[in-house]
Amino acid sequence: MQLGYIGLGLMGKSMARNLMKAGHSVTIHNRSRAAVDELVLEGAREAGTPFEVAQSSEVVFLSLPDTPDVEAVIFGTQGLRGGFRPGTILVDNSTIQPAASRRIATLLSADGVTALDAPVSGGDIGAREGTLAIMVGGPRPAFEAVLPLLQAIGKTITHVGESGAGQVAKACNQIMAAAQMVAMAELLILAQKSGVEPSRVVEAIRGGAAQCWTLDVKSPRLFAGNRQPGFKAHMMHKDLGIILETGRVYGVPLPMSAVNLQLYEAMLQMGMPGLDNSAVIGVYEALAGVQLALPA
Amino acid sequence: MQLGYIGLGLMGKSMARNLMKAGHSVTIHNRSRAAVDELVLEGAREAGTPFEVAQSSEVVFLSLPDTPDVEAVIFGTQGLRGGFRPGTILVDNSTIQPAASRRIATLLSADGVTALDAPVSGGDIGAREGTLAIMVGGPRPAFEAVLPLLQAIGKTITHVGESGAGQVAKACNQIMAAAQMVAMAELLILAQKSGVEPSRVVEAIRGGAAQCWTLDVKSPRLFAGNRQPGFKAHMMHKDLGIILETGRVYGVPLPMSAVNLQLYEAMLQMGMPGLDNSAVIGVYEALAGVQLALPA
Question: Which of A16, A53, A263, B224 is the right S-S partner for A4, CB 3.0 to 4.6 Å?
């Protein structure tokens, strides 16, 4: 199949590669060159503009940082929109505002183009190994048409509902993920300053009602002194911004997520935007005047 | 062995019964009669005061609502302290302030009595089935002496550290449990008001980084329209009070848990103290002017 992929960051590059491995012809476009050169060597075709990507693709994928990037690639100068042919499907793997995904889908449907919002969860490892969770919103026939392609890049693929529903699910995912990250930070620093070995506490509680992905996967990395991403703090900060904006648009006060956004804002101001999102514990170390003790 | 058990609520009654089933002779005391009558019929011996319980027991267990209750039973008129013989071990299954557990342990050690803080997690079902998680603080020899008794009431039994360490672990457990409950409420109401079926969202996200005990165990109950305890909201409110007080004593700002305490405070003021702690979603229903939609 003739595919396009725009946005070859840590996530996008791996997803584009997995589509190539599944036997598809992929036309790529990216702001910076390194990833382009790498994939061209592996057989991808380079396009100079999003417009050219649209002209040569039956399905176009995006993996871009934020809402304005997605809108610029679609509607900007030399953007996708001018090059789309009727019947094309746009699969947006970016995490952006649900309301923006809905707006994009409505505008493109006038051109006979179907947009699916299909944000992913599972980090760079999931992207590399093709085991991402993919949350999809948009018309079911288009979802079914691209399902074999999604199966090349992810494992748990859910059609959540109409346009924007994938982005809503991703926002919901991040509400819980951020809550777990911040709760882990609070409990580890509370344990330590109360004179209790933090790793013993995790051992005592991780099998009960506190059990979660974050304690299971991220606490061992913190105890190993590893705060490298994974999923970067400034991306979690961006996602919490989307969450609060979605709450504003649809009328939902979100007091806990609002506090969590402020904690990630602090993390950015403290000079830690590129650390893993679990490194929000660094904010608590500063607040409480202590460093997390590593197990002996 | 000659045991004592004081505090026969939903949790304590089941724990006392499991100690009896393990072949021990248990002397009981409780403020209200019904649980006493029930256990006496099953072979327990009744004592009129905590003092009498102490006089006839090698190990005394407590399961009481809060710090003042525990202090009254130990140090009050006709309290345990006057009746303890040197060598007695006190096992406190209540969830109270870590600093209070440490104070109690110090005071009792002057009498040759060893106090272990041993709060539990796992709810009324865990208490009935003897599958509780038990987090223990205090001297290791005393822990090892009572371990066979703890194995009659729980499954995951961890010696976390010195006196108070069990309470610290329980406080840490509740930081994460409350965060999951509140995050679940925020994400379900956000999904719904964004026009997405909440149960579809849970299905899409529960296998990834948002995975947790609360989504696994509690969301199906909410979707079944069931907000009965489980673990009551006013107890979570009490535990969050302990968490914030522990943060105050040991010097740890806890902004997210502070917000969560306010949300459970709202739940109490809205007349829902006896519902399950997952019913904090009722606060968000009120805030957002919507009722959680149950799946068709």
Answer: A53
pLDDT digits (tens, 9 = 90+) for B126-171: 999 999 999 999 999 999 999 999 999 999 999 999 999 999 999 9
* Residue A133 burial (CB count, 10 A): 24
| Same domain membership, residue A177 and residue A158 | no
Q: Is residue B154 located within the same domain as residue B36? A: yes
For residue A194, the SS3 value is coil
Nearest Cα of chain B lies from the Cα of A257 at a distance, in angstroms, of 8
Which residues of chain B have a CB within 8 Å of the CB of A259? Answer: 255-256, 259
Report whether A198 contacts A293 (CB < 8 A): yes
- What integer is the mean pLDDT of A130-136? 95
Are A26 and A71 members of one domain?
yes
On whether both B145 and B189 belong to a single domain, the answer is no
Pairing assessment for the beta strands B132-137 and B120-121 based on DSSP bridges: antiparallel
| Statement to judge: residues A172 and A158 lie in one domain | no
pLDDT digits (tens, 9 = 90+) for B58-71: 999 999 999 999 99
Q: How far apart are CA A48 and CA A113, in angstroms?
A: 22
B13, B155, B170, B232: which one is catalytic?
Answer: B170
Output the domain CATH number for residue A284: 1.10.1040.10
Provide the 10 A C-beta neighbour count for residue A81: 18
Whether A143 and A136 have beta carbons less than 8 Å apart is answered as yes
Q: Does B183 contact A at CB distance below 8 Å?
A: yes
Residues B88 and B131 in one domain: yes
Write down the ipTM of this complex.
0.95
Let me know: does B202 contact B214? Beta carbons within 8 Å: no
Judge if the upstream peptide bond of residue A76 is cis by omega within 30 degrees of 0.
Answer: no
**For residue A296, what pLDDT is reported?**
82
